[in-house]
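A note from the maintainers: we've had questions about how concatenated examples are separated. There is no special marker in the raw files; a new sequence line simply starts the next protein. For clarity in this README we add a label.
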Amino acid sequence: MLSEIPLVTLLFGIVAAGNSVESRSDTLTDRIENEHAIKIEIDAAVRKYTEPLLQELEKLNEDTRKETAVLRQDLDTLKQENALLNERFHTTKAENEKRQHHLLSVVEYIGMNQKDTIKSRKKRQPIEAVAFHAYQNSDKCIHDLQTFVYDNVLINDGNGYSANDGIFDAPVTGVYVFTWSVADFHDWYAAELVVNGMSRGATIADNDSQDIAVGTAVVVVHVQAGSHVFVRRSGGGGCNVLNKPGSATNSFSGWLLYITEP
């Protein structure tokens, strides 16, 4: 069948086909070039807008790196300062504990010295002036267990003796000396010294003749401060006691020998 087609027709077909292909090739090339140009424009536009952003971002990153470096440096400084503070705290705590222990030792030492000083002062302190002497002014009738009231007071240093009731109240603790006398005529009469309700000594005046009898006793006794000391009748043939100033009297005396620990 190919041989039946005229040659001219064939040539025209070939030429037409070639022109068509060439036309299509030119169109594809133009499209490629256009797309390439568009891509170039797009890339240029992207670079135009993104480069400042990238520069700004890089600047921000650089600032962030600098700030981070400063923060790290500050953090290192804070760590060092914290370490120094911890060291100072522990050092101060140890020093305070040491000082507290030393202070407690000093306080204990001072306390012991104060006790020793007080004891030493008590031992060295002069004897406090405590002394009294009193007697009865006239004859009196004193019954058994009745207290003698010596109303005439000659001396009362320390104000321990009371002429109202005949009782001596010890102002300080210590060793005291007490002496008392009882006078009677033609009879017998006994009197005892009482310290806080306990009898600490007694004396008796006894005479069957017409003479005056006098009994005297001396007692050395330890007495607590505030103790009551007095003389009372402990027995006798009659109630009358003799008081003759210048010859025989009922008297009561006492004085502090030395102070002792309470």
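[label: protein 2]
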Amino acid sequence: MSEAPTKYKVLFYNKLNNHQHIINTFGFVENNFGTITLLQERASHGHFQELLKKKLFEPSSMVLIVIFLQIIDAMVYNVGKGMIHDDLRCSNVLVFQMDSSKPEENFVKLTNFALARPNKPSLLDDRRSTIPVEYCAPEILRSAGRLNYSELSEIYSMGVLMWEACSQGHTPYG
């Protein structure tokens, strides 16, 4: 995670812990200063974006489709649990199995719920400190960040993630 998780975020992980395409969180440890460290499973191949950028993984179109469907499956589960990931990007997808030519040999999981929040249309709350501009839906940018993500803005971010994967891990607008 990009920032130290709070107990609030730990609850998100616990709520989403039972899906095959979402990172498993086994628990957390809190030190004397109140800093929380999540205990999560390890992805054998690391981040999707890094593999693409370093050309360690050059998936075929069919493999990409399977990976996208796995991410979408996790998104649908999140929304069903009343959650929005709010930071979809290739660097927040972990690769557990990969094969550039065999779609059925690929397995990914969504991670980094640091910006995740309940899926309720409302004005921005005080917990929001970062907006992932490159992946952000236009309506969020036009509102100067005052609006929260919704399922629709999450779909936009998924489209940007798909572009990022098809462009071999290039950062949008970068």
